[in-house]
Amino acid sequence: MRRTSLLLAVLALTACGSEAAGDAASPSPSGDPGTVAGIEQTQNDLRIDVDRGDGTPPESWTLVCAGFVEGSHPQAQAACDHLAGMTEPFAPLADDLMCTEQYGGAQTARITGRWAGEPVELELSRTDGCRISQWDAFGPVLPIPVGVTDPLG
Question: Are 106 and 132 in contact (CB under 8 A)?
Fold first, then answer.
């Protein structure tokens, strides 16, 4: 009898512990910071607005990268993976940076939201060599093909 009571007590404690751990391991799909096993997740929730500069309406996407991927971005997983591999992806260009005088096109983009829990507000363009490189560094985050012209037409 005593052995059975001890076994039931252990099973009850294990079940309670599993339920609590299951709740803590569920990330918040809304993009709000949550916890995983007691560790706070950072908020990675972005809005990306891109204007092709060709008279077509601007395009806007949302992107959430927080242990899960969601949003309207057409290449959401690739964009999250790319951003995760970048060092300070939203750092502005230095004021004293010397850039080549070349024009890459009329495209502009604006990325706002939060990354690693910090506010993001970055304006991008292709108006000189530095800004073209900055744009290109975002890879699949800015899935608009640029600089492609039809030789026949």
Answer: no
Per the CB < 8 A criterion, the answer to whether 32 and 67 are in contact is: no
Tens of pLDDT, residue by residue over 22-39, are: 333 334 444 444 444 433
Asked whether 42 and 84 are in contact (CB, 8 A), the reply is no
Cα separation, 148 vs 100, whole angstroms: 20
- Which one is the CATH code of 42-141: 3.10.520.10, 3.90.550.10, 3.30.350.10, 3.40.630.30? 3.30.350.10
DSSP-assigned beta bridge partners for residue 118: 115
Alpha-carbon distance 98 to 113, whole Å? 29
* Strands of the 59-65 sheet, one edge to the other: 69-70, 59-65, 45-51, 105-115, 118-126
Nearest 5°: phi and psi at 86?
-90, 145
Structure pTM? 0.69
Domain with CATH 3.30.350.10 in the chain: 42-141
Instruction: Compute CA distances 67 → 36, 77, 83, whole Å.
Output: 9, 11, 13
